[in-house]
């Protein structure tokens, strides 16, 4: 498939110019092309290289299977996803309310607006940033009280008590530039909440190149707790708390089973059982060590 790729000559986190090939993964969602994952020899960040540039990346999201931009309930897998999503939206809101006394938020990478809508319905003042045009339309249809932001420079300095990125940071082309904007926008006593997949989890080590959370080329970076903390510390943030995302182990395992099955669907009970077992085992390992979860939510505060 034709696409416009850019090859990074330096690490997007630390700027080091030496890295090594680690994996080659298939884009199962859209192009079926292979993309390379490389590791920075200095900070150890894993990232997709080469990758689609900012103008070319949009088409890789153009799939009904990319659920954060759609509201599909087609098939058992996405029906289950919808049920779990409705539960986790409330849990995420309650987590924020336990961390912040103020209800003023920037939801960055809002997708189709479900979380922003959950907040507005519970008396939060919500600004939402979402670059995808179709997803923005869904946000507008869901709730007119959500303030859609065109670009980060439009948001006032020290104007937000909370900024959230739910599985978004791994998609951001201008990594350090964007994080510096978060530092500007966030109040001094505010919190930055970032949820990302963890490639050092058990399910990642088991599924390897078929691990669904690599999600190339949409995922430009592949974090673990150490590499994310290094990136955020360099941009003026201190790690405050880590929270496991228990349901992600099951969902990512199910999608990984879908990747390795033929013709790309979970056709047998065996695949579902395997996904449940490996998702459960990944969570058991997380109980022993919090940082091992398939996906992790990190709470950061500004270094003053």
Question: What can you tell me about this protein's structure?
Answer:
The chain is an alpha/beta fold and 304 residues long. The protein has a single domain, classed as Vaccinia Virus protein VP39 (Rossmann fold, 3-Layer(aba) Sandwich). It has 8 helices and 13 strands. The strands form 3 sheets. A 7-stranded mixed beta sheet has the order 8-7-6-9-10-13-12, sandwiched between helices. The protein has a 4-stranded antiparallel beta sheet with strand order 2-3-4-11, with no helix packed on it. α1 crosses α2 and α7 runs antiparallel to α8. The relative contact order is 0.14. The model has no long low-confidence stretch (mean pLDDT 91).
